[in-house]
Amino acid sequence: MPKNKGKGGKNRRRGKNENESEKRELLFKEDEQEYAQVTKMLGNGRLEAMCFDGVKRLCHIRGKLRKKVWINQGDIILVGLRDYQDTKADVIFKYTPDEARNLKTYGEFPESVRINDTVTFVEGDMDDEIEFDDYSSSDNEVDPVDAI
Predict the structure, then answer these.
(1) Which GO MF terms are attached to this record (predicted)?
(2) Beta bridge mates, 34
(3) How confident is the model at residue 47 (pLDDT cuts 50, 70, 90)?
């Protein structure tokens, strides 16, 4: 068997993400940009996001963020709008929950936006109509499962 002559494997080359604790400057939206909340992860570097201008867009995670910044459902992101495709956008930046709370206090987001919650956009209240019957078994009845 060959001897190991290197200084480590791919985990050493990958390194540690040590810039997580640093405080970074808050990035506000500019022209042709919009804030959005991730509704669904689609895979292959794409996601579906509900922009705060009321349009649901298919967003593409750009190469600088791919595999470096993990984006989950419910995250607040900054997307760059395309002037030739209104239903598609590109993810430019992901906000931490603290940064998103700061932007909400500055009045950048609508008041209806929930920052910490994972968003499940279910049409209507589907579970309000579920009713359970009160069923009590008496001692002299044999449960079919117990009879096996």
Answers:
(1) RNA binding; translation initiation factor activity
(2) 79
(3) very high
